[in-house]
Specification:
The complex is a heterodimer of chains A (about 120) and B (about 110). Chain A is mainly beta and about 120 residues long. Chain B has no helices and eleven strands. Classes of the chains: A mainly beta (about 120), B mainly beta (about 110).
């Protein structure tokens, strides 16, 4: 079974530039998450999708971050414009959890972003 | 607000030792995930449990719902077990699906040969 695919693996940009990350979850997984993990800290949830709808984006800095999952399959996360403090690993995860469910999460290998 | 507390923060042990990592969580969390993260690597989900005990190879995870406590045990530890182990709680989301995880701060485990 293919895992959660993320690209790019690494990205270096200058502050105020824009960047986009892509995630393809495990086939059939309804729920998709984007996490931000700053060095030395645990992951922080940015946004959660259930199919193509947003379930939770309360911690997404909406002035600069946006995410979409238009067809309920793969997803993109965008930062525009980037700040130095956005340097982190951006992790995508998916699960088959549906209504009332708790299921194991599967994580991608992450995109390491460095903002200079 | 959901909370997860994990201990110890750092643990160094000799190869072969029995390892225990503990996790306490707040009311509202209905399932516990144990995750493993190697340096520079992605996160691997080890277990998801909402009751009882699960075992996979040398790894055992237990959860006590009444005490809101979970433990991850590693038997016959090996240097390749060296990693950060993270417990994370999820809650049932009334709108459908598992909520995003609330993460503990992680336990940095080093197994010395």
């Amino acid at each position: 079974e293919a895992g959660v695919a993320q690209s790019p693996r690494y990205k270096i940009i200058e502050k105020r530039q824009s960047v986009a990350f892509w995630c393809n979850p495990i086939s059939g997984h309804a729920t998709l998450y984007w996490y931000q993990q700053i060095l030395g800290q645990g992951p922080k949830l940015l946004i959660q999708f259930q199919n193509n709808g947003v379930v939770d984006d309360s911690q997404l800095p909406k002035d600069r971050f946006s995410a979409e999952r238009l067809k309920g399959v793969d997803s993109t996360l965008k930062i525009q414009p980037a700040k130095l403090e956005d340097s982190a690993v951006y992790l995508c995860a998916s699960s088959s959890a549906l209504v009332g469910g708790n299921e194991k999460l599967f994580f991608g290998s992450g995109t390491q972003l460095s903002v200079l | 607000k959901n909370e997860v507390e994990q201990s110890p923060q750092n643990l160094t042990a000799q190869e072969g030792e029995f390892i225990t990592i503990n996790c306490s969580y707040s009311v509202g969390i209905s399932a516990l995930h144990w995750l493993q993260q190697h340096p520079g690597g992605g996160i691997v989900s080890l277990f998801m449990l909402s009751s009882g005990k699960k075992k996979h190879g040398r790894l055992i995870a237990t959860i006590n719902i009444q005490e809101k406590h979970s433990s991850l045990h590693i038997t016959a530890s090996h240097p390749r077990d060296s990693a950060v182990y993270i417990c994370a709680g999820s809650s049932m989301y009334s709108g459908g699906g598992a909520d995003g995880l609330t993460f503990g701060k992680g336990t940095h485990l080093i197994i010395q040969p």
